């Protein structure tokens, strides 16, 4: 069944309100409401394969602070974000840690790695 789905674009700071019209097969027929090409691209991808970057923290031993900021190296399927964050709650690293240091490869089979977002010296 064809229909219209609404999205809020996160492709740029404008935050356009998008309307995606699809056909009976679920294929995008038209995207309305975008102010730039990023909005159109975002809407089409969001309609079929929504993805997000993950930014959070993990526990760190032997450092001044208890939590180390981390992020994924690529977008992951949106429906995996909560599972990844829950998994990262159980991860603990030991200082020193370099900014960009690889911590976890292919987190939960998504193809994205988890890396440190900043440097943490040992205390």
Description of the structure:
This protein is α+β, with helices and mostly antiparallel strands and 123 residues long. It is built from two helices and ten strands. The protein has helices at residues 37-48, 81-88; strands spanning 3-8, 17-22, 28-32, 51-52, 55-61, 67-72, 76-77, 92-94, 102-104, 114-116. A five-stranded mixed sheet has the order 8-5-6-10-9, with no helix packed on it. Strands 1-2-3 form a three-stranded antiparallel sheet, with helices on one face. The longest helix has 12 residues, at 37-48.
Mean pLDDT: 95
What structural category characterises the helix and strand content? Answer: alpha+beta
Topology as a string of helices (H) and strands (E): EEEHEEEEHEEE
Question: How much β-strand is present in the residues?
Answer: 25-35%
Write down the overall geometry: elongated
Low-confidence blocks of residues: none
Task: Give the end-to-end Cα distance, rounded to a whole number of Å.
Answer: 61 Å
Largest sheet, in brief, is: 5 strands, mixed
Q: Helix amount, in percent?
A: 10-25%
Radius of gyration: 19 Å
């Amino acid at each position: 069944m064809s229909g219209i789905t609404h999205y809020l674009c996160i492709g740029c700071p404008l935050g356009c309100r998008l309307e995606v019209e699809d056909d009976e097969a679920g294929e995008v027929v038209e995207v309305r409401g975008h102010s730039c090409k990023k909005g159109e691209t975002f809407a089409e991808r969001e309609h079929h394969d929504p993805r997000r970057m993950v930014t959070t923290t993990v526990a760190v031993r032997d450092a001044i602070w208890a939590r180390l900021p981390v992020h994924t190296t690529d977008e992951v399927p949106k429906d995996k974000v909560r599972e990844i964050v829950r998994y990262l709650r159980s991860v603990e690293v030991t200082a020193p840690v370099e900014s960009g240091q690889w911590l976890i490869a292919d987190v939960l089979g998504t193809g994205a790695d988890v890396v440190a977002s900043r440097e943490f010296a040992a205390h």
